[in-house]
Amino acid sequence: MIRLGIIGAGGNTISAHLPKLIEQSGVEIVSVANRTIASGKKVAKKFNIPKVYDDWQNIISDDEIDAVCIGTWPYMHSTITVEALEEGKHVLTEARMAMNSEEAELMHNISKSYPDLITQIVPAPHTLPYDKTIKQWVTEEMGDLILFDVRSSTGEFINYEREMHWRENRDLSGNNIMHMGIFYEAGMRWLGTASSVMASSNVNVKKRISPDTGQISEISIPDHLEAIGEMSIGGNFHISHSTVLGGAEKLEIFIFGTNSTLKITEDINCTTPQSYNTLKLKLETLSKGANKWKILKPKKINVGKWRVEEEFIQAIKGKEKITHTTFSDGVKYMQFTDALKISSESNKKVYLPF
To answer: How far apart are CA 86 and CA 282, in angstroms?
Structure first.
């Protein structure tokens, strides 16, 4: 029996991690620690968890527990991960991996000291059904990469009245910028990493009311970002990410190759099977010499899905290797995240990896 403790029972933990961990054979959820004892008791009642702690370190020090699932905001990921590993516990941590690349590298380096312990980051989920199909297109049809172009937005005008979201709170989110890291992580699966970054960003709403304190808090995390640079495989990238562009398309991705172009957009009529937090997308290709876009429909055998908790448990049992997402890959996307901040603040090109 694999016994788990839950540290931080946020939205994803309640909606996905807990029910899907409970579905796995040979798994028992034995304890939970949340932001307050009251919220912890509420989660425990819903999922029949026997122990509720008011301090997450009680879970770490509990010899009965084999693994922890960390569902806190990024500000706690590194601290809890390091302590859990040093106490001999497997770790599944929510994304983003950490506050910055320094924390991510510490987590990765510590994990290498405990090779028998499984470590996993919750993967960027939006493109899971399509990743194998896109990667196959890159390998077989794209040719050489010219440009990887990502434009993602909420499509909303500025709302000056709403409260601060935790992603806008640098004390909780660190250097992570909105949902930008999610799309870079997906791009890494298809094309690999960036080798350089030039970024420009803006904070259009500089103050909001904190839901925790009721006080006005300063915001330093950008709500609009533009970045360009080179890719390690050759070619360039352009990423535009914003929460303030009223009327903008929510998602538009182009991968321009020498032989073919791939366009990815949202599609409410998509028939590709979906799973937790995935997006309904349309994949279209235009080949060199053609005059008409062609739908690229994932074959049934290539359709991926959310199986985070299953992969974690199977890896602990020695039956699988972690693929979505490794600490090594987490360090890569956290370095990119830091590079965006450094470049935007210095107005200089930043080279990767650090």
So the answer is: 45
Tokens of 31: 């304890």
The answer to whether residue 331 sits within a structural domain is no
One domain for residues 237 and 313: no
Let me know if 159 is exposed, middle or buried by CB neighbors in 10 A (0-12, 13-18, 19+).
exposed
In-domain check, residue 350 = no
Asked if residue 316 and residue 241 are part of one domain, the reply reads no
In DSSP notation, 12-81 reads HIIIIIHHHHHHSTTEEEEEEE-SSHHHHHHHHHHHT-SEEESSHHHHHT-TT--EEEE-S-GGGHHHHH
The string of DSSP letters for 203-242 reads -S--EEE-TTTSSEEE--S-SEEEEEEEBTTSSEEEEEEE
Please state the pTM of the whole predicted model: 0.96
Domain total for the chain?
2
Supply the CATH number for residue 198's domain. Answer: 3.30.360.10
Residue 94 CA, chain-centre distance (Å), reads 8
Neighbouring residues of 256: CB distance < 8 A, sequence distance ≥ 6 = 145, 146, 147, 148, 149
Same domain, 185 and 292: yes
Range 94-107 average pLDDT: 98
**For residue 2, what pLDDT is reported?**
98
Confidence band, pLDDT 50/70/90 cuts, at residue 33: very high
For 6-31, what is the mean pLDDT? 97
Res. 263 pLDDT band, cuts 50 70 90: very high
Q: How confident is the model at residue 170 (pLDDT cuts 50, 70, 90)?
A: very high
